[in-house]
Write a structure and sequence with these properties.
heterodimer, A: Glycerol-3-phosphate (1)-acyltransferase, globular, B: about 375 residues, alpha/beta, 7-stranded parallel beta sheet, 3-stranded mixed beta sheet, 14 helices
Chain lengths: ~300, ~375
C-alpha cells in the first residue's frame, strides 16, 4: 500500500514572500555615507581584470537602471537559457552607434536573471586607449577582446559577453539596420571550444534606433582616430542635446544554448568546426532578430 | 644538492644583502661571495654574516678571476639597475645592466665549475599597453615591445641569458620575473613613488598593480638558488589592487595629471630627488600589469605568504598616512549621527502632523480561495 502523503490543496494559501521594503531615505543616505567611507579608504576588492564590484553595484548599475526600465523599457526573454552558474559565452548583435546595447545586456542579466549574473564584456582595444572610458570599462568588468582573456574568464566560470561584429556592427549606417555583419574571425567560437563553455545566442532589438546613423564624417573620424564619426538627425546638429538617445522600445532575447563541450578542446584548431559553429550562431541570432521585429508593434512602443 | 660556493651580484642593495644573509645563515652552503661596485651600508654589512664581500665591477674582467679562483658553482645575478639615478645616468645604467651582464655571462661560460645561474628579471619585459591581455603567462611576449629604459635592458639581458643557456646546456638557468616589490624595508621603485604625500597618476587611467612582499622575494630567490628549477617563472603575490585603491589605502592623495604633462611631472620629481621614473615606467601607471603565477605555485613550488593587499598593508605600517583613515571614520560617524537626529526629527514631525502620509497596513488573508 502506498504511503500517505500530504498534498497541499491550495498552494496559494501559503503566505506570499513579503518583498523587502525599499530602504527609507535615511537608510539610503547612510548607505551612501558608508560607500563614501569605503571609497576614501580603499577598503573594497577589485580583481585582476580591474573589475570593481563595489563601484558597479553602487554607482554604475544604479545609473544605468533608469535607462533600462524607463527610457528603453527593455523586455527580456529567454532568461532560462542563461545558465545559473558556470562559464558561458553570450554572443549578441551589436548596433546603435554607441555600444549602449552592451550596458543594457549587463543590466538585464544582473537585475532580471534569478542568479543575478554578472556579464563580463569583451571590448575592442580602442576602448582601453581612451582615457576615462577605458578605466571605467575595466571597473564595470570589461576586458580586452582577446582569446587569452576570454578563456581565462570562462575557465573561472564567468558569464562572458561578446559582440563579434565589433565596430562593423555598432557603426553601420541606419539603412542596414538588423542585418548582421561578418562575425569577426570566429575567435569567440574557439575560446568557447577550448573551455567547453556553451554559447548563448542573444538578439537585441531596439538598439538600432537610438542613434540612427545617417552619415559618417570620415575626416573627423580620421582626425580623432576613431573608426567612424556618426552623423544622426540630431547630432551634431543639436550639440549635446543630440547625444540623448531616442527612446526606442527594446527587446533582449536569449536563445537556446549551443553546447560546445562534446566537440572537445582540439576542435578549436579545426577551422571547419569553427566556421560551422560561427555560422550557426549567426543564423540563430538573425532569425531571432526577424522574429522579434515581427512581434514589435512600433519602434517606440 | 646544495650549492658549495654562491656568488651574488648587487649585494649592497637591500634585496641582494638580504639574500646573501639568508644564504650565509645556511650551514649547508660552503661559501657566499657578494659582489658590488659600492661597499654595503653598515647595517647591511652587519647582517651579511660570513659573506665575503668583493668590491668589483661586473663590467671588468676581475669578475672572471673571482669566479675562477673561488670555483663558484652558483651565480645569482641581481645587479640590474632600474633607475638612472642609482647608476649615475642612463648611459652608465645601460652599460652596467647590459655590458655587465655580458661580462658576467662570459666569465660563467669560461668557468667549468658553474652549474647554476639565477637571474632576477622583471615582469616589465611584458611591457604595458592597452592591447595587452589582462594577465600575462610566461609564454606570452610584449604586444608592444618596450622601447627604452629598464624594460628594454631587461629584455636584452634575458636574451643574453637565453643564448648563454643554449651554449652551456649543462648549466641550469632560472629566470625570475618579479612584479613590483614592496615592504617596510626595501627601497623599490614603487615604494619610493607611493611614499610621496601627493602621488601623481595618469588622468583618466587606473593601473592594475600586482605586488610582491620583500620577504617573499627573498624566499623565492633563495629557493631558486638552492633548488633545481630551470626555466622562466613569474613571481608575484595573489590578487591585485588598482593604483587609485593602493594610494587610498596608504592614505596618500592622488594627483591625476593629464598625459601631456606627465613628462614634466616626471622631470620635476626626478629633480626634487623623490622618484626617478622613465617614460616607459609612466606607461605602467596607465595600464598596469598582472602576471599569472600558477607556475610559481605549481612547478616552482612556492606560495607567497603575503597577498598583494597584505603586502601593501605591511608597507602601510611604516608609512604615516597623510589622510588618516580614523579621520574618514570620524567624519562619516559624525555625518551618521547628524543624519540619525534629522531622521528622528522628521519622524516626530510626521507623527505630530497626524500620520496622514502613512500607508495603510496591508490587509491580510483576503484572497480568493480556489477550489478544485
Amino acid at each position: 500500500m502506498p504511503e500517505a502523503r500530504v498534498i497541499p490543496l491550495r498552494p496559494d494559501d501559503d503566505p506570499a514572500p513579503v518583498p523587502a521594503p525599499p530602504p527609507s531615505w535615511d537608510e539610503a543616505v547612510a548607505g551612501g555615507l558608508e560607500f563614501l567611507r569605503r571609497r576614501l579608504t580603499g577598503e573594497y576588492d577589485t580583481d585582476e581584470f580591474g573589475f570593481d564590484p563595489d563601484l558597479t553595484d553602487h554607482v554604475l548599475l544604479p545609473f544605468l537602471r533608469p535607462w533600462f526600465e524607463r527610457w528603453f523599457r527593455v523586455e527580456v526573454q529567454g532568461l532560462e537559457n542563461v545558465p545559473a552558474d558556470g562559464g558561458a559565452l553570450v554572443v549578441a548583435n551589436h548596433s546603435g552607434t554607441v555600444p549602449v546595447d552592451a550596458l543594457m545586456t549587463t543590466v538585464a542579466l544582473h537585475d532580471e536573471h534569478p542568479a543575478s549574473r554578472r556579464l563580463r564584456l569583451l571590448g575592442a582595444d580602442l576602448v582601453f586607449q581612451v582615457p576615462f572610458i577605458g578605466a571605467l570599462a575595466r571597473k564595470l568588468g570589461t576586458t580586452l577582446a582577446c582569446n587569452e582573456d576570454a578563456e581565462r574568464l570562462l575557465t573561472e566560470g564567468e558569464l562572458v559577453g561578446v559582440f563579434p561584429e565589433g565596430f562593423k556592427g555598432v557603426g553601420k549606417p541606419f539603412s542596414e539596420r538588423y542585418t548582421l555583419q561578418r562575425f569577426g574571425r570566429g575567435g569567440f567560437v574557439s575560446a568557447a571550444l577550448r573551455t567547453g563553455a556553451p554559447i548563448v545566442p542573444c538578439a537585441i532589438v531596439g538598439a538600432e534606433e537610438i542613434y540612427p546613423m545617417i552619415g559618417n564624417a570620415r575626416t573627423a573620424a580620421r582626425l580623432l582616430g576613431l573608426p567612424y564619426f556618426p552623423i544622426t538627425p540630431t547630432f551634431p546638429l543639436l550639440g549635446p542635446l543630440g547625444a540623448v538617445p531616442l527612446p526606442s522600445k527594446w527587446f533582449i532575447a536569449f536563445g537556446e544554448p549551443i553546447e560546445t563541450a562534446s566537440y572537445g578542446a582540439a576542435a578549436a584548431d579545426d577551422p571547419m568546426v569553427v566556421f560551422n559553429l560561427t555560422d550557426q550562431v549567426r543564423e540563430t541570432i538573425q532569425h531571432s532578430l526577424y522574429r522579434l521585429l515581427l512581434q514589435r508593434r512600433s519602434v517606440f512602443s | 644538492m646544495p650549492p658549495a660556493v654562491v656568488l651574488v651580484t648587487g649585494v649592497s642593495r637591500w634585496l641582494g644583502g638580504a639574500l646573501a644573509a639568508e644564504l650565509a645563515a645556511d650551514p649547508a652552503i660552503g661559501r657566499v661571495i657578494g659582489v658590488d661596485t659600492v661597499p654595503p651600508a653598515p647595517e647591511v654589512l652587519r647582517r651579511l654574516g660570513r659573506t665575503e664581500f668583493v668590491r668589483a665591477d661586473i663590467r671588468s674582467p676581475l669578475i672572471g678571476k673571482v669566479i675562477e679562483s673561488a670555483s663558484v658553482d652558483t651565480v645569482v645575478h641581481m645587479n640590474i639597475s632600474a633607475t638612472p639615478a642609482g647608476a649615475g645616468g642612463r648611459v652608465s645604467m645601460k652599460e652596467l645592466n647590459v655590458i655587465g651582464t655580458m661580462q658576467l655571462l662570459a666569465a660563467c661560460q669560461r668557468s667549468t665549475a658553474v652549474r647554476r645561474l639565477v637571474l632576477k628579471s622583471t615582469s616589465a619585459v611584458y611591457g604595458a599597453s592597452s592591447r595587452d591581455p589582462a594577465v600575462f603567462t610566461e609564454a606570452m611576449q610584449a604586444r608592444r615591445v618596450p622601447s627604452g629604459g629598464f624594460a628594454k635592458d631587461s629584455l636584452d639581458i634575458e636574451g643574453y641569458v637565453r643564448s648563454f643557456a643554449r651554449r652551456r646546456p649543462d648549466v641550469g638557468v632560472a629566470v625570475l620575473r618579479f612584479t613590483n616589490l614592496i615592504g617596510p624595508r626595501i627601497d623599490s621603485l614603487l615604494s619610493g613613488f607611493l611614499r610621496m604625500p601627493v602621488v601623481p597618476t595618469a588622468l583618466g587611467y587606473d593601473a592594475r598593480v600586482q605586488l610582491l612582499h620583500e620577504d617573499d622575494a627573498v624566499a623565492v630567490l633563495r629557493q631558486a638558488t638552492t633548488g633545481s628549477f630551470v626555466g622562466t617563472v613569474n613571481v608575484g603575490a595573489a590578487g591585485t589592487v588598482l593604483l587609485s585603491q593602493a594610494i587610498r589605502r596608504l592614505g596618500r592623495v592622488a594627483l591625476p595629471v593629464p598625459e601631456p604633462a606627465m613628462g614634466s611631472v616626471g622631470r620635476l620629481t626626478r629633480r626634487a630627488g623623490l622618484v626617478d621614473w622613465s617614460p616607459e615606467q609612466m606607461r605602467f601607471l596607465n595600464f598596469g600589469r598582472v602576471v599569472d603565477t600558477r607556475l610559481l605555485r605549481g612547478e616552482f613550488g612556492y606560495v607567497p605568504q603575503y597577498s598583494t593587499a597584505e603586502a601593501l598593508a605591511d608597507y602601510a605600517r611604516t608609512l604615516p598616512p597623510v589622510v588618516r583613515p580614523e579621520l574618514v571614520d570620524d567624519a562619516t560617524a559624525t555625518a551618521r549621527a547628524v543624519l540619525g537626529r534629522v531622521a528622528g526629527g522628521v519622524a516626530t514631525v510626521r507623527a505630530l502632523a497626524g500620520d496622514r502620509h502613512r500607508s495603510a497596513p496591508a490587509v491580510p488573508g483576503l484572497r480568493a480561495v480556489r477550489d478544485a
